[in-house]
Design a protein that fits this description.
single chain, binds SN-glycerol-3-phosphate, binds magnesium ion, TIM Barrel
């Protein structure tokens, strides 16, 4: 069985970094809140200083943690995640920033209340192994997006480190691995041909797209909404590829993409279609 064989529904909803509009992204609170609202969760993975895959989006700790405060106290110079050991990362609060930033205006709008969030704090960074264990327990398929590690010493190893974690968790058929760095996808396919691959693209489509996806051995294409058209979806679906579009928060646009034949959309406001 592969990732896409798991679903009987044709219109799949992927929770982008968890229920990111109402919980701090890529935290256990965001993943927990998306259970029952999505078919699968999309999350971001990179490698910390001691070689462990962790769940985190930005290359630096500035936006979504209290690392600046801790670094100042301890005399640490760099806020790049790749320069921090897991033990130190685990001390960070990666949730409370949400209360001050209200990144989607959901607190201001009254969609959720500070009192709902405060008891959840602090949130702690998860290793990929911890998230996979949680996902297996909740039978929640995961799209693992491997972040670009070219500025780190793990560029050549990130694919195998991620695959090790997936195999150790016994979750090969529960995951879809994607990346904007297509070299990682080629490496994944060589190391684990049975694991599904999604090719992320945000600006221009690679030339000869169908052939390109075939060569990589991709199961799906993951274009940004801005470069997605009916024709693109029809062509790729006819060639046998899934088309999973990010990030689509507008419900009307979601419906339109599904009408065009999109297999999945990623959204910050996950909600399962009413049957
Ligand atoms: O995987 C879809 C989407 O997450 C890609 O962009 O920056 O949100 O990780 P980003
Ligand atoms: Mg992502």
């Amino acid at each position: 069985m592969t990732f896409f064989d798991r679903f009987s529904d044709v219109h799949l909803v992927g929770a982008h970094r968890g229920f990111r509009a109402c919980r701090p992204e890529n935290t256990l609170s965001a993943f927990t809140a998306s259970v029952g609202r999505c078919h699968f969760i999309e999350t971001d993975v990179q490698i910390c200083r001691d070689g462990i895959p962790v769940v985190f989006h930005d290359p630096t700790l500035k936006r979504t943690t209290n690392a600046a405060f801790i670094a100042n106290k301890l005399g640490i110079k760099s806020l790049r995640l790749s320069t921090w050991d897991l033990s130190r990362l685990k001390q960070l609060d990666i949730g409370s920033w949400f209360l001050a930033a209200d990144p989607f205006g959901t607190l201001a709008a009254g969609t959720l209340a500070v009192a709902d969030l405060e008891p959840l704090m602090p949130q702690r960074i998860l290793t990929l192994a911890e998230l996979l264990e949680w996902a297996m327990r909740h039978k929640m398929p995961l799209n693992i997006e491997i972040k670009d590690q070219r500025r780190t010493r793990f560029d050549q190893h990130v694919a195998s480190l991620v695959l090790d974690a997936v195999h150790r968790a016994g979750s090969a058929s529960m995951v879809l691995i994607s990346s904007f760095n297509h070299d990682y996808l080629v490496q994944c396919k060589a190391l684990a041909p049975h694991i599904s691959i999604g090719v992320l693209q945000n600006e221009q489509h690679p030339p000869e797209l169908v052939q390109y996806l075939q060569t990589i051995g991709a199961a799906a294409y993951h274009p940004a909404d801005a470069i997605t058209s009916r024709e693109l979806i029809r062509t790729l679906r006819a060639a046998g590829f899934g088309v999973n579009v990010y990030t689509v928060n507008d419900r009307q646009r979601q419906r339109e993409l599904f009408d065009f034949g999109a297999t999945a959309i990623f959204t910050d406001f996950p909600e399962l279609p009413v049957r």
